[in-house]
Amino acid sequence: MEKELTSAMAWNLLDDLDDGVIVADINGIVLYKNRAALSLSGLEDEASSLARIETYFAPEAECGDLLNPPKDMNLPSVNGRTLLAHSKSILLDGDSLIQIRLTPDQAKPAKIQDPPTTALDQLATLTDINRAEDFNQKLQRLVDGLQETGWNRVGLTLRDENFNPTQMITAGFTDEELAYFREHMLPADFWLTLFNDKSLQRFRHGNCYFVPGTSAWSQENLQNILPDPQA
């Protein structure tokens, strides 16, 4: 369970980045790609997970060197656009993986190597849960890791078969906010609307849901969970 949560949180951090991100195993099998990677490569939704990294580049591109990180390369994409590709090794849930970051060729080279406070470099924070001794500690480190990557407040709930909360783990709340939050938790039927709405399945990662505060569902249903809605 904790491994699925860690991976889902990691992917959620990368989903909305402007730069393309591909995560592959050491053999080049793609385990994750964000929307920007598809758009930059000209693939839209055609490239499924478990494709190889070669799928994202033109046939003549010699992209195999990306699997020997760290590596910076200029490579033609499927749509003929030249991309800057930067690969580096990452460790997620104990697995050695390769992260490939894609930017348009007109982007400044410095953009490829952002400060270590970016979501890409904060993935290691999430994998710190592996050093926790029990499940509750792991969950707390997951939540703390997300806040450290720039999320203002993070709330994680575990729920029973009827979607009633059994445990809540938080980070970033004041004592007043946390007390108010506990007293005004949304009932199970509110969450059931999320789980049953097909249009909201884009927020699902395996058995986990990560719903941005800017989404229409959040704006409609989460206005009153803090004493100051503008906080």
Report how far apart the termini are.
32 Å
Percent of residues in helices comes to 25-40%
Strand order of the largest sheet: 2-1-5-4-3
Count the strands?
9
Taken from the alpha-carbon principal axes, the silhouette is elongated
Percentage of residues in strands: 15-25%
Radius of gyration, Cα only, in angstroms? Answer: 19 Å
Most strands sheet: 5 strands, antiparallel
Task: Give a quick summary of the entry.
With 231 residues, this protein is α+β, with helices and mostly antiparallel strands. It has two domains: 18-113, PAS domain (Beta-Lactamase), CATH 3.30.450.20; 125-221, no CATH class. Helix content is 27%, strand content 23%.
Description:
This protein has 231 residues and is an alpha+beta fold. It folds into 2 domains: 18-113, PAS domain (Beta-Lactamase, 2-Layer Sandwich), CATH 3.30.450.20; 125-221, no CATH class. It contains 7 helices and 9 strands; from the N terminus they run αββαβββααββααββα. The chain starts with a helix and ends in a 10-residue tail after the last helix. Residues 107-117 have low confidence and may be disordered.
Protein topology:
Blueprint: H1 2-15, E1 20-24, E2 30-33, H2 35-41, E3 71-76, E4 82-92, E5 95-104, H3 123-126, H4 135-148, E6 154-159, E7 165-171, H5 175-183, H6 188-196, E8 204-205, E9 208-209, H7 216-221
Antiparallel strand pairs: 1-2, 1-5, 3-4, 4-5, 6-7, 8-9
Helix pairs in contact: 1-4
